[in-house]
Amino acid sequence: MRTAPSLRAIIPATCLLLAGPAFGQSLAEMRERSATIAERYLAVWSSSGDLSIEGVPYVYGPRVTFYGRSLDWRGLAAEKRRAVRRWPVRSYRHRPGSMQVICNGETRRCAVRSIIDYRVANPTTGRRASGAASFDLGISFAGPRPVILYETGRPLRRGN
């Protein structure tokens, strides 16, 4: 049945973005919603499988800056698929107390910054990695629904 994949894609994306409109929000509401989006974003990417990849067109803007590269939905989905294949088991968590959210009322954009702690593994190859990284997520509230404009970060500490 053709509708099942699109429903599977919409459900995590809708949960991630709280299913509400982007317009008519105060700065405080945009800050709160951005923090929630960032929390749910990591929860979705910590799940096994590739369900979150199907939601790319619903969560991201038509072009996104992803770790310094400008990608469209297709390119971003391909990048995320590669990451899922490399690390099928993933856990990403915002370090408590590290999240900062800055919003601009004129542009209707917010920047979420935090430190994340991560653990990833590939049971097939036996590879594992863990560590901490900076994490930046840009969110626009200028359209009919919030969308992610950029994601970036860098490793701070690596472990095994």
Q: What would you note in describing this structure?
A:
- With 160 residues, this protein is an alpha+beta fold.
- The protein has a single domain, classed as Nuclear Transport Factor 2, Chain: A (Roll).
- 34% of the residues lie in helices and 39% in strands.
- The protein has 5 helices and 7 strands.
- The protein has helices at 3-16, 27-45, 51-54, 56-59, 73-86, and strands spanning 60-66, 69-72, 89-94, 100-104, 109-122, 127-140, 147-159.
- Strands 1, 2, 3, 4, 5, 6 and 7 form a 7-stranded mixed beta sheet that branches.
- The longest helix has 19 residues, at 27-45.
- The radius of gyration is 16 Å and the shape is globular.
- Residues 1-11 have low confidence and may be disordered.
Kindly report how far apart the N and C termini lie: 43 Å
Approximate helicity band? 25-40%
| Average pLDDT for all residues | 84
Number of helices: 5
Strand composition percent: 35-45%
The total strand number stands at 7
User: What is the N-to-C succession of helices and strands?
Assistant: HHHHEEHEEEEE
Count of domains:
1
User: Overall 3D geometry?
Assistant: globular
Measured on Cα atoms, how large is the radius of gyration?
16 Å
What is the CATH topology? Nuclear Transport Factor 2, Chain: A
Low-confidence stretches: 1-11
> So, CATH architecture?
Roll
Helix/strand structural class? alpha+beta
Major β-sheet profile = 7 strands, mixed
| CATH C-level label | Alpha Beta
